[in-house]
Design a protein that fits this description.
330 residues; alpha+beta; DNA Primase, Chain A; Dna Topoisomerase Vi A Subunit, Chain: A, domain 2; 5-stranded antiparallel beta sheet; 12 strands
Length: 330
């Protein structure tokens, strides 16, 4: 007689960590920790850019390389090309049943969300020649950096709840991104391979600087690209940027900019993540994208080709993205 007592029939009976453990063949057992690995969706991912993390009592994933993210159902749906979430749910149930018949039940763990590092303190320093050498690669001056409330830091200290030891990071290229009221919202370390950005809080970059007195708005991929766009000298267009290409602007901001400007478009990175973000903004908000095919991003274009040549290259793609609403972008 076939033994069926261990068979599950609903997704709720499948342990929360099992789909991630099984389909991603993780090298460690999930017990509430975050896991970083190479993208399973992007074979060209040279550095780990996919994260498995525990939030709000469930495991989630975020793949920055491929621009994907979500829960276990989203993971399986994307991995196997399903169009419906119920198809992914059925596969998880079937595969889990096969698993437990061969291996026994997967251990159920009561997870506790682990405390994350928070910025405890930071020290602002003066600008140096090292800073000048880095930012002027993109023709971004200290005046422009100050306009967007970017300050150089000598160090910052992180702390974690329940851990007595604090971690202090020091370096010659550390920059704090601040809101207009002086609140730190992000730390940027351009030369760090493991800790390039540290997000402190949500913020629409460049929003404080908008005057809403121009007909057009360009949504860039980063604050650096936003400042690079300013250097192109398009006098009838303003610019903002989300936290990253993989985080959307809040709906309140989308509604405001579509009301205040005659036309809006995105100008994201020339890579898979940037293209996915561009398509997403078109599908979700009906905001078209300008695809600049020179370098990876706008700042890199200015570094490689200069302001004048980059402006010449950007103009037609902006015009194409805003066809029917834009006649001249001097």
């Amino acid at each position: 007689m076939i033994q069926t007592t261990s068979i599950v029939s609903t997704l709720e009976e499948v342990p929360a960590a099992w789909p991630f453990q099984y389909y991603l063949t993780l090298p460690e057992t999930l017990n509430g920790q975050d896991v970083k690995l190479k993208s399973v969706f992007n074979p060209d991912d040279s550095k780990p850019s996919m994260f498995i993390f525990f939030r709000d009592n469930k495991y989630m994933f975020k793949d920055f390389s491929a621009g994907k993210g979500g829960d276990a159902l989203t993971l399986v749906k994307e991995l196997f090309g399903y169009s419906k979430r119920w198809e992914a749910a059925q596969k998880i149930i079937n595969d889990y049943n096969d698993y437990i018949l061969s291996n026994g039940k997967y251990p159920v763990t009561i997870y506790e969300e682990r405390a994350r590092y928070q910025i405890d303190s930071f020290k602002i320093r003066n600008w140096t020649e090292i800073d000048k050498k880095y930012w002027m690669r993109y023709k971004i001056s200290s005046k422009l950096l100050e306009e967007y409330n970017v300050s150089p830091l000598s160090e910052f200290t992180m702390s974690k709840e329940g851990v007595n030891k604090k971690v202090t990071i020091r370096g010659v290229r550390i920059y704090g991104y601040f809101k207009k009221d002086g609140t730190l919202y992000k730390i940027y370390q351009p030369t760090s391979t493991d800790f390039k950005f540290f997000k402190v809080c949500n913020y629409t970059q460049g929003y404080d600087q908008l005057k809403f007195d121009k007909p057009y708005l360009v949504i860039c991929s980063s604050l650096k690209d936003l400042m690079a766009f300013k250097k192109l000298g398009f006098v009838n267009a303003e610019a903002i940027a989300p936290d990253s290409e993989n985080s959307k602007l809040p709906m309140s901001v989308i509604d405001t900019i579509k009301e205040k400007y005659e036309a809006v478009c995105t100008l994201f990175d020339n890579d898979e993540a940037g293209l996915r973000a561009m398509i997403s903004y078109k599908e979700l908000f009906d905001i078209p994208g300008a695809h600049l095919k020179l370098e990876k991003d706008l700042a890199d274009c200015i570094e490689a080709h200069g302001i004048a040549n980059t402006r010449i290259a950007v103009y037609p793609v902006l015009t194409k993205a805003l066809t029917g609403t834009i006649k001249e972008l001097p």
